[in-house]
Amino acid sequence: MMRFRQPSVIPGFGLTLGFTIAYFSLIILVPLIALVLRSAGIGWSGFWAAALDPRVLAALRTSFVTALIAAAINVVFGTLIAWVLVRYRFPGRRIFDAMVDLPFALPTAVAGISLTAIYAPNGIIGQLVAPLGWRIAYTPIGITIAMIFIGLPFVVRTIQPILEEVSKEVEEASATLGASRFQTISRVLLPSLTPAILTGFALAFARAVGEYGSVIFIAGNIPFVSEIAPLLIVIRLEEFNYQGAAVIATVMLVISFLMLFVLNLIQAWSRRRYGYGS
């Protein structure tokens, strides 16, 4: 017989479990179920016709590909930033550490306008690369930069506390036993950081794929080129095509859920494989 209740000195399991299920259902499950039911109202043929529309597929591809690229870049540089903040002491470190959280507090529209002013053809950086025939703003590259901006704190703040728990003595012991720097990183540090890295990647990806405010200004919103799926949902709503908007949202929901589910499986395997976490 399965036991759902674990022994605890603190009472209230039934009450807290009931509250958790009710809160989770009202805040997450009910809206998602309503979304799926709304999209299913046009029937399977109508659903697939709306989902497989070339413009919808192009917008989905732009959103997910740029979000994946941005999350991957954030994993590399976010890990490096977390390492510097944890392992080194230097003047201005606290200020630099606080600035990492700016994308959390900054309104997304302000971030989008600022990035556009920098990377537009007449911007500070845009005008430097324009003579080379390169365009950053109003292209998928600009979308990726905006997603990197808003996703970086998720990676840094996820990896940073894990790095703080990894003692320097572990690295020194590895070097004492004759391991090279690459072996110390790949066989000592990375196994302990892998679950946190995957979590940071998943959070950055989830944040980026649904981003709207900071992206629409720098994207240019050109169909089949730089139009993102969240913007296309807004366009469908403005056209009073509510079921079409629900279809796009449902497809994004399914794809995001499957990708995050796979990442969670890999994360769980990593914890069992290397013995970190519970």
Automatic annotation (TrEMBL):
The entry's keywords: Membrane, Sulfate transport, Transmembrane, Transmembrane helix, Transport
Transmembrane intervals: 12-37, 64-86, 98-120, 132-156, 188-209, 215-235, 247-269
Annotated ranges, domain ABC transmembrane type-1: 60-264
Subcellular location(s) of the protein: Cell membrane
InterPro entries reported for this sequence: CysT_permease, MetI-like, MetI-like_sf, Sulph_transpt2
Gene3D superfamilies registered for this protein in UniProt: MetI-like
Molecular-function GO term, any one: ABC-type sulfate transporter activity
Coarse class of the protein's main subcellular location: membrane
Domain of life the protein comes from: Bacteria
Function: Part of the ABC transporter complex CysAWTP (TC 3.A.1.6.1) involved in sulfate/thiosulfate import. Probably responsible for the translocation of the substrate across the membrane.
Record's subunit section: The complex is composed of two ATP-binding proteins (CysA), two transmembrane proteins (CysT and CysW) and a solute-binding protein (CysP).
UniProt protein name: Sulfate transport system permease protein CysT
